[in-house]
Amino acid sequence: MDAMTTATTPTPAAPRGLRLFNALVGVTTLGIFLQAITAGEFVSQKDRGGWIAAHDVIANVTIVVAVVTAVIGLVLVRATDRILAWSSLVLAVLLLLQLMTGHLITDAKADGWIGVHVPLAFVVIALAVWLAVRGAMVRRRA
User: Fold this and answer.
1) Tens of each residue's pLDDT in the chain, 142 residues
2) Per residue, what are the HEC states of the chain?
3) CA 139 to CA 142: how far, in whole Å?
4) Quick check: 25 and 134 in contact, CB under 8 A?
5) Which has the closest alpha carbon to 87: 33, 139, 126?
6) Other C-beta atoms lying within 10 Å of the C-beta of residue 109
7) Contacts of range 118-125, beta carbons closer than 8 Å, 24 or more positions apart
8) With contact defined as beta carbons under 8 Å apart, do 74 and 117 qualify?
9) Cα 125–108–96 angle (5° rounding)?
10) CA-CA distance, 64 to 119, in Å (whole number)?
């Protein structure tokens, strides 16, 4: 009786928290992909101010969603999968670094930061996709 009770008792708040977490990871990942699209639109263009503004707005929204995702991850998902939860915090921090280097490039005209900003974007994309895949795998197990 003990083994059956343990096997069928779900972790409190895990399924609901995991579902919300995965949805927020999806929104964050969409924002990151929109960042890549808008970046591609303004690179080497003469009239690029609108694309840079869109890139900045999308970055700000994506960071807010990523921070909310990290909080949900650490509060509700950590008991189910610690690596998934802490990795969401890493993604939020990396996105903040992206924002800082982006503003150094556009506001301070410090183009040398492009060599950090662009490779970091690839790391951010990879981590976002990894979070989405791992989140789906963890949800299937739960």
Assistant:
1) 455 544 545 454 446 799 999 999 999 999 999 999 998 887 767 778 888 899 999 999 999 999 999 999 999 999 999 999 999 999 999 999 999 999 999 999 999 999 999 999 999 999 999 999 999 999 998 7
2) CHHHHHHHCCCCCHHHHHHHHHHHHHHHHHHHHHHHHHHHHHCCCCCCHHHHHHHHHHHHHHHHHHHHHHHHHHHHHCCCCHHHHHHHHHHHHHHHHHHHHHHHHHCCCCHHHHHHHHHHHHHHHHHHHHHHHHHHHHHHHC
3) 5
4) no
5) 126
6) 7
7) 120/94, 121/35, 121/36, 121/39, 123/94, 124/32, 124/91, 124/94, 124/95, 124/98, 125/32, 125/33, 125/36
8) no
9) 30
10) 22
Provide the whole-model pTM: 0.86
Alpha-carbon distance values, 89 to 5, 66, 108, 111, 139 (Å): 34, 8, 27, 28, 19
